[in-house]
Amino acid sequence: MNKKAIYAGTFDPMTLGHLDVVERAAKIFPELIVAVTAVTGKTPLFTQEARVELVKEAIQGLSNVTVTLFDGLLVEYARSQGASVLIRGLRAFSDFEYEFQMALTNRRLAPDIETLFLMPKQDYSFLSSTNVKQVASLGGNVSEFVPPAVAEALSLKFKK
Fold it and tell me: What is the side-by-side strand order in the sheet with 4-9?
């Protein structure tokens, strides 16, 4: 199989659940692009460039994974990169409805691009970037939820 995949997300910030999905996808596909998207509809904690750097730090050692900036329609970006598969992470059943609708929309826009759902380890199924930011903002230790560089960046953001 010579397929390229894209795992897109805001990664604000990247959690160990995200990293687990990246590692799983990197074992399946010879080339994986982690596309850090601009955030629409909400204000991100980290800039898009900072999020890219934090993801790059987290995926060191995964030689078949690259990290890029991305803004716009995902299926068009996938085509521009020669990718034929979109990776989506599912933490819990509550994610399914949104992800299912998005996958069907993407299929309608680009029938040649497949969506593959991957679940993180059960240990990470409760993690969300929103919850991690809330814990960090209240001075909590997030080191068991995020890669080390992200924990440090969060600590600096919320230093009191």
Answer: 65-70, 31-37, 4-9, 85-89, 114-118
Mean pLDDT by 10 residues, the chain (160 residues): 87 96 97 91 89 97 96 94 95 78 92 94 88 94 96 90
Range of the domain at 92: 4-126
Looking at the domain assignment, is residue 154 inside a domain? Answer: no
Q: Where are the beta strands (DSSP E) in the chain?
A: 4-9, 31-37, 65-70, 85-89, 114-118
Residue 49, burial from CB neighbour count under 10 angstroms (0-12, 13-18, 19+): exposed
- The answer to whether the pTM exceeds 0.85 is yes
Residue 142 lies in a domain: no
Spatial CA neighbour of 9 closest among 147, 44, 30: 44
Angle between helices 148-157 and 129-137 (to 10 degrees): 50
Positions annotated as catalytic residues are 18, 42, 91, 129
Rounded to whole angstroms, the Cα distance separating 159 from 146 reads: 17
Q: How many CA atoms lie within 13 A of 158 on its CB side?
A: 17
Structural domain total, the chain? 1
Q: What is the pLDDT of residue 107?
A: 94
